[in-house]
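To the wet lab folks,

You asked to see what we're planning to order before we commit. Fair enough. Below is the target structure as tokens, and below that is the sequence we designed to fit it. If anything looks off to you, flag it before the synthesis order goes out.
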């Protein structure tokens, strides 16, 4: 510390000496006659020590580390822990201000010059001072004349701007005539594709362009540097935008600077010549008048862009006369204004026609029409309160009925239940159809609803799905188009208001349901080692389900599994194992929350957030209630338990808070919409464009049609599009299969080629290698069945239904045999982790990571 102080002191002394020398020079320069050295000492010595003190304190404060300052202050008896930085510096400066001061006056006296040296220095400093003053005076005069010139120009801009433009317009007309008579036209390509040679397509012609803007897009045949980003230069084929912009810029500078030089008052010109010793040049005017000229350049170029080429072609042949060219310009403006009004009128007419077409195509298709003679019965309440059971009991007693389910598994469950209870019931989903003799009841997925069929009772489950952007329209159609004496609609509390808006309040009964079995949130954070019989452990991905099930199995638990991509037949077997007690714990995704009634003692949320296809987000209140409500089963568990692994207070609030009412329902294209669309257009590109432009009615939200658009991109412009009707093509695009699986997308595309070429459908690729292969095979057969049923080939479909059942059995077997052996690996180094290891990285990687953090902090 003391060594540093000494080094800093030496530097402060040198800087102080330099400042004293500067002060002497200033003192001498300010006196006409040479003052005595003693006069300097008398007048300035009071400032000597202040100069030293300022220099010393600044240097020592800025060049000593904070830790050294603390050490120094501790040695002086100060307590410095937790002291603010500013206060610490103040304390330090107070202590070091008198640390070995430099005696400036003594140094000045020791180095006093003799009389001759002093006088010589005075003469030089005085001469320098007088020269500086003269230069400042000259600079002031120059600044003054510059201001006068700029003031003159600024006063003339408003009066002369149009005249300047007319002159520039005439010059540019000659330029464009020359280019259109001599320059080649090039084929348009990607401007950055520099490896491709530009292909000539004849010569430029004024007949090809309406305005100058049209020419600006043409290639000149040269290459230029567009811009620079960091160290990378971006080169591209040059268009006329750039040389014409440069040409207008140069002409603007010349026209304005020429005007100034020719019209500037004589007294300003004389003043300029006296001060600068030369005549005022256009180059000097351009240099000074850049702000004005830059503004005019931009204005003139924008005006030139709007000029009609035919007007400029005619203008070039007329010698420049300001009055004549002004008359021609006004005529051109009038003609341009008239054409613009005509264009705007045509545009308005087109917009009105487009709006009329949009209204005709979509019209009132999505405005709910309340139907007379139907009794609507709303079953509103929480999960696991008997809503669906009551509605189905009424449907079974009716002469005919249909149950519309959100999941194929639920449709299968009702199909089995009704047939086992002596009520003949058929089944229809996108992938299978089972006709039961004499059946007047049917269980379907909601997408299979057909509005022309009549029933005594219709039951629509999980009505809150109305708000789902991609599937919600199926619920809307079922609710508003059902032909029945009674329509029973089952949903959660947050859909009540929306349903009443759709069906009206005059012909509706509302049954409210409350849980008989209470829900209790456990106060202790859940760990996987706490798993017990009757637990349903919920996570939000297939991988997480399998990993968790593997860990539980390796810890001795018998486990069932449920996840969205699992075959429904397999899911049913997994559920039955849990229901019959063969397995004690079930691990599931949020698929467990929709209509699956299981003897669950406790719902465990292993995660509080989920990936929704776009981002990872916290679960919503409705999701927590829907899933958590599955806990408890009357006669088995008289209280339902809910556990969380973290943030218990926050998650409990989501479970208990009131949900905001749903305000919108989803809409999607219908066959009626396509029928009206084909009166005007015949391609799906246009349909998707119109769908985007259509402003759906208040309270509705359009389906995104993202997957349909992506599939359409594979067949656009092919024989598939050419040979299929619009309705048929959209029907194939809309098939409900996993379009993110490349293998399935390719199967769909191959099948479409086979359909339009009247060939046999390619058989789905089947592999029994492992669980993942079996699941993909199941989906492939499912897609094949979707196509067969759509083509009306039911007989052939029966074979593939048996094949699919065999694959589902294989998936069930793989879940029994493979999951336990799933190895967990460190995500950093790939090392195999113990089955019950609770972290994603191994101990070694964790230790290395912690050491790196500690080094960064140090």
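Sequence we intend to order:
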């Amino acid at each position: 510390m003391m060594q540093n102080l000494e080094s800093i002191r030496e530097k402060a002394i040198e800087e102080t000496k330099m400042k004293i020398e500067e002060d002497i020079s200033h003192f001498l320069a300010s006196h006409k006659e040479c003052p005595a050295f003693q006069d300097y000492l008398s007048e300035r010595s009071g400032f000597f020590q202040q100069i030293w003190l300022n220099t010393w304190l600044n240097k020592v404060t800025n060049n000593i580390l904070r830790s050294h300052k603390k050490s120094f202050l501790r040695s002086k008896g100060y307590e410095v822990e937790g002291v603010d930085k500013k206060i610490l510096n103040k304390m330090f400066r107070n202590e070091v201000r008198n640390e070995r001061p430099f005696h400036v006056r003594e140094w000045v006296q020791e180095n006093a010059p003799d009389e001759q040296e002093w006088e010589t220095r005075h003469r030089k400093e005085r001469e320098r001072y007088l020269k500086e003053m003269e230069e400042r005076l000259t600079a002031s005069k120059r600044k003054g004349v510059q201001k006068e010139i700029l003031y003159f120009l600024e006063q003339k801009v408003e009066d002369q701007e149009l005249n300047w433009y007319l002159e520039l317009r005439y010059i540019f007309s000659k330029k464009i005539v020359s280019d259109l008579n001599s320059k080649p036209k090039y084929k348009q390509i990607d401007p950055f594709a520099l490896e491709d040679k530009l292909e000539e397509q004849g010569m430029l012609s004024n007949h090809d362009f309406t305005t100058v803007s049209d020419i600006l897009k043409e290639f000149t045949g040269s290459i230029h540097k567009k811009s620079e980003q960091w160290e990378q230069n971006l080169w591209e084929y040059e268009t006329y935008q750039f040389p014409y912009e440069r040409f207008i810029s140069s002409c603007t500078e010349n026209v304005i600077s020429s005007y100034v030089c020719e019209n500037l008052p004589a007294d300003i010109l004389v003043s300029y010549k006296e001060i600068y010793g030369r005549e005022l040049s256009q180059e000097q005017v351009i240099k000074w008048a850049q702000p004005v000229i830059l503004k005019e350049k931009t204005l003139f170029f924008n005006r030139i862009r709007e000029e009609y080429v035919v007007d400029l072609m005619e203008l070039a042949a007329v010698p420049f006369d300001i009055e004549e060219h002004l008359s021609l310009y006004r005529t051109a403006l009038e003609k341009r204004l008239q054409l613009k009004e005509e264009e705007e009128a045509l545009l308005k007419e087109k917009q009105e026609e487009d709006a009329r077409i949009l209204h005709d195509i979509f019209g009132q298709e999505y405005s709910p029409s309340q139907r007379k003679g139907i009794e609507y019965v709303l079953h509103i309440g929480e999960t696991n309160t008997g809503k669906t059971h009551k509605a189905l009991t009424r449907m079974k007693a009716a002469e005919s009925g249909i149950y519309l389910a959100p999941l194929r598994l639920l449709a299968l469950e009702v199909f089995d239940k009704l047939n086992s209870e002596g009520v003949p019931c058929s089944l229809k989903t996108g992938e299978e159809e089972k006709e039961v003799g004499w059946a007047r009841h049917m269980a379907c997925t909601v997408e299979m609803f057909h509005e022309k069929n009549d029933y005594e009772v219709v039951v629509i489950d999980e009505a809150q799905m109305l708000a789902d952007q991609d599937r919600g329209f199926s619920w809307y159609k079922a609710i508003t188009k059902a032909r029945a004496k009674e329509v029973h609609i089952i949903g959660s509390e947050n859909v009540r208001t929306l349903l009443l808006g759709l069906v009206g309040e005059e012909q509706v009964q509302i049954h409210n349901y409350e849980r008989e079995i209470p829900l209790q949130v456990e106060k202790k954070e859940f760990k996987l080692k706490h798993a017990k019989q009757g637990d349903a452990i919920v996570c939000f991905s297939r991988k997480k389900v399998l990993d968790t099930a593997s860990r539980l199995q390796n810890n001795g638990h018998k486990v069932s599994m449920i996840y969205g991509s699992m075959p429904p037949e397999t899911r049913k077997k997994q559920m039955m194992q849990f229901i019959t007690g063969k397995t004690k714990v079930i691990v599931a995704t949020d698929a467990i929350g929709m209509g699956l009634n299981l003897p669950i003692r406790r719902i465990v949320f292993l995660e509080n957030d989920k990936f929704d296809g776009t981002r990872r987000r916290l679960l919503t209140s409705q999701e927590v209630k829907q899933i958590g409500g599955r806990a408890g089963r009357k006669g088995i568990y008289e209280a339902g338990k809910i556990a969380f692994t973290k943030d218990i207070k926050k998650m409990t609030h989501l479970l208990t808070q009131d949900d905001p009412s749903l305000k919108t329902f989803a809409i999607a294209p219908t066959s009626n919409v396509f029928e009206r669309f084909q009166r005007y257009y015949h391609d799906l590109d246009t349909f998707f464009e119109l769908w985007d432009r259509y402003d759906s009615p208040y309270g509705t939200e359009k389906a995104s049609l993202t997957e349909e658009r992506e599939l359409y991109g594979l067949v656009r412009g092919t024989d598939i599009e050419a040979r299929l009707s619009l309705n048929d093509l959209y029907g194939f695009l809309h098939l409900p299969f996993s379009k993110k699986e490349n293998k399935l997308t390719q199967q769909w595309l191959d099948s479409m080629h086979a359909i339009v070429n009247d060939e046999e459908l390619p058989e789905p690729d089947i592999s029994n290698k492992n669980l993942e292969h079996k699941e993909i095979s199941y989906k492939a057969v499912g897609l094949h069945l979707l196509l067969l049923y759509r083509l009306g080939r039911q007989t052939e479909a029966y074979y593939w239904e048996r094949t699919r059942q065999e694959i589902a059995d294989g998936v069930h077997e793989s879940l029994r045999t493979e999951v336990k052996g799933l190895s967990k690996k460190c995500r950093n180094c790939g090392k195999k982790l113990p089955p019950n290891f609770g972290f994603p990285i191994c101990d070694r990687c964790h230790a290395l990571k912690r050491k790196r953090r500690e080094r960064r902090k140090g």
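Structural context that might help your review: The first strand starts at residue 184 and ends at 186. The chain has 30 helices and 24 strands.

Thanks,
Computational group
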